[in-house]
Design brief:
The protein has 253 residues and is α/β, with parallel strands linked by helices. The protein folds into two domains: 126 residues, Rossmann fold; 112 residues, Sandwich (Immunoglobulin-like). The chain contains nine helices and nine strands. Helix 1 runs parallel beside helix 3. The longest helix is centred in the last third of the chain and has 19 residues. The C terminus is likely disordered.
């Protein structure tokens, strides 16, 4: 049983009128007759066939809808999984990535081998900088517009990114499209982040960025951030795979 446990934690935060994060420790596939029940879909005969992609998709949308409820309440969910058999991460993961949470998986957990890694992960998760009930909007100057967003968040419209929480290890990629002639001089980007701090204060943080406009490709390549571009291309490729399940070679053609 997993769904009712997350719902109970969410209800507790709602009753306390607080944003926060749920730490869920789970070991097996939720098979009991309760909300969020899953069935064992493991079938090694599907590996390498066209039907393999069905196992990589969520089996039900319960955890996606639950993730959306958590976001609206300013609640993030972290899953610590300790399975000894198939646990269907594909179906469980939406409740984490929609809320800005994380998944930690320790297959065939052994105390002597895995305890230090688990304790280090848990300690880092609890102690790192974090804010809750987050909403982000990106604005641009004339000639530019944000068209794509990549990361762990929920979007109820085309402009606002919502998360139950965001921490110092999370990053969001925004694809900015050049649709019109840019004015000479500079182009401007603004990111506004509305969040609740750990002390309970509602705050607004605004980042402004001015970028030089140039028609010289040599200058463009000289200042390009290769790490950022590589990460962006991988995230873009993953989205294409999720949408159309093409081969990796086709996506990057």
């Amino acid at each position: 049983m997993l769904g009712p446990v997350i719902q109970a934690g969410l209800d507790a935060l709602k009753c306390a009128d607080r944003a926060g994060k749920l730490f869920i420790f789970h070991t097996n596939l939720p098979l009991l007759d309760a909300p969020g029940k899953l069935k064992n879909r493991e079938d090694r005969k599907l590996l390498g066939t066209d039907k393999e992609k069905t196992v990589l998709q969520p089996h039900i949308d319960f955890y996606s809808k639950l993730g959306e409820e958590c976001v609206k309440a300013g609640c993030a969910v972290d899953l610590f999984l300790f399975p000894n058999s198939f646990v269907d991460v594909a179906s469980l993961s939406p409740v984490c990535y929609l809320t800005g949470g994380s998944i930690y998986k320790y297959q065939y957990f052994e105390t002597q081998k895995d305890s230090q890694r688990f304790l280090a992960d848990l300690s880092h998760d609890i102690s790192r900088e974090i804010v809750f009930d987050v909403m982000i909007r990106v604005r641009t100057s004339t000639g530019l517009r944000p068209t794509g967003f990549f990361g762990s968040f929920f979007m109820d419209n085309t402009t606002d990114l919502e998360m139950g929480a965001i921490d110092c290890d999370k990053a969001i990629h925004v694809e900015i499209r050049h649709d019109d002639k840019l004015p000479e001089g500079s182009a401007y980007l603004q990111t506004a982040v509305l969040f609740t701090s750990c002390s309970g204060q509602r705050r607004l943080r605004i980042h402004n960025l001015a970028l030089a406009v140039s028609s010289d490709y040599n200058q463009l390549y000289r200042v390009a951030d290769l790490d950022c571009l590589t990460s962006f291309l991988f995230k873009q490729g993953k989205r294409h795979l999720n949408l159309c399940f093409r081969n990796v070679t086709v996506v990057f053609e």
